[in-house]
Design a protein that fits this description.
This protein has 300 residues and is of the alpha/beta class. 33% of the residues lie in helices and 25% in strands. The protein has two domains: 36 residues; 260 residues, Rossmann fold. The chain has a seven-stranded mixed beta sheet, sandwiched between helices. The protein has a four-stranded antiparallel beta sheet with strand order 1-2-3-9, with no helix packed on it. Strands 11-12 form a two-stranded antiparallel ribbon. The longest helix has 18 residues.
């Protein structure tokens, strides 16, 4: 890639080298991004029918590290935290005096939309994966838009909130996407996004072994808190808060995921012991400070 996609400067430093591609940091603005990118055809191939149930995920090979091992099974671990986030958004929009209108970009199989609807939001989903769209439209009555954000018409100032969970790092042009979302949000509207925290102490300590860095078939950008706050400000958003966010796992799945990063044989042995003892389905909340969530308001 000739120049930084954000600031246009060409000088970079290699942070993590994976052979066929690498993650570099722009010397000027400090944004990290993949170089070279997969082609658009290669990207589309990732978001296929097996994206939400990738049976090869646990092999640990970078070429197979995309999507989810079993997204459907994670639903009940994800939704309690999604409900807390929905209530936090509602509290920040309490002055609206009406049901807030919320768009989720990259809504997956609709697990956040489901709880946001129950929290009295007027919800809309936008999803790129056609297999997910078909499933969503069979299951839910609320509107589901199909396609990419840049190709989807959005009415100006029509939304009170937009959420993007684990999406912005996938976008080929997150900067134009932020401009489009700024225009679609009403004044004072809320943008909420989660993404890997590439500059946290833990992320830097794990380095190239970190799963989010190794997802080179789908992750194109890597933000730290400083770079994310600056980019949001550059595109008309004032940060309310940025904080780390964790995830609830079944113990067996957590041990599987840890085996991808650390000592594979050790954690696979621990998984077998946990399964034998009948505690493999025990729910464990983990926050290693490798992911962040940002709440920001539209300014102007």
């Amino acid at each position: 890639m000739a120049a930084c996609p954000s600031c246009g400067h060409g000088e970079t430093q290699t942070r993590y080298d994976f052979g066929s591609n690498r993650i570099v940091r722009c010397v000027h603005c400090e944004l990290m991004y993949l170089d070279p990118w997969p082609t658009e055809e290669e990207t589309r191939a990732v978001y296929g029918e097996d994206y939400f149930h990738n049976r090869y995920f646990m092999r640990g090979e970078n070429s197979q590290l995309f999507g989810y091992f079993d997204y459907v099974a994670e639903r009940f671990n994800k939704q309690p935290q999604y409900a807390r986030i929905a209530r936090e958004i509602a509290a920040l929009l309490a002055d609206r005096g009406r049901r807030p209108r919320l768009l989720e970009v990259g809504c997956g199989l609709g697990y956040f939309l489901d709880v946001a609807f129950e929290e009295d939001f007027d919800v809309i989903g936008l999803e790129f994966n056609p297999h997910a769209v078909a499933r969503l439209r069979r299951k839910y009555a609320f509107p589901i838009l199909s396609g990419s954000l840049l190709d989807t018409p959005l009415e100006p100032a029509s939304l009170d909130a937009v959420v993007l969970f684990d999406v912005i790092e996938h976008l080929r042009d997150p900067f134009t996407a932020l401009d489009r979302l700024h225009a679609a949000l009403a004044p004072g509207g809320l943008l909420v996004l989660s993404t890997p925290d590439a500059d946290s102490r833990v992320s830097r300590a794990i380095g190239r072994r970190l799963e989010d860095f190794r997802r080179t078939r789908e992750h194109l950008f890597f933000f730290g808190r400083k770079t994310l706050a600056r980019i949001l400000a550059d595109h008309g958003f004032g940060v309310v808060t940025i904080r780390s966010i964790g995830h609830t796992f079944d113990l067996a799945l957590l041990l599987d995921r840890l085996s991808l990063v650390y000592h594979r044989q050790l954690f696979q042995t621990l998984k077998r012991i946990a399964t034998r003892l009948g505690v493999g389905s025990l729910q464990v909340y983990v926050n290693p400070h490798t992911k962040m969530i940002a709440f920001a308001r539209r300014i102007g």
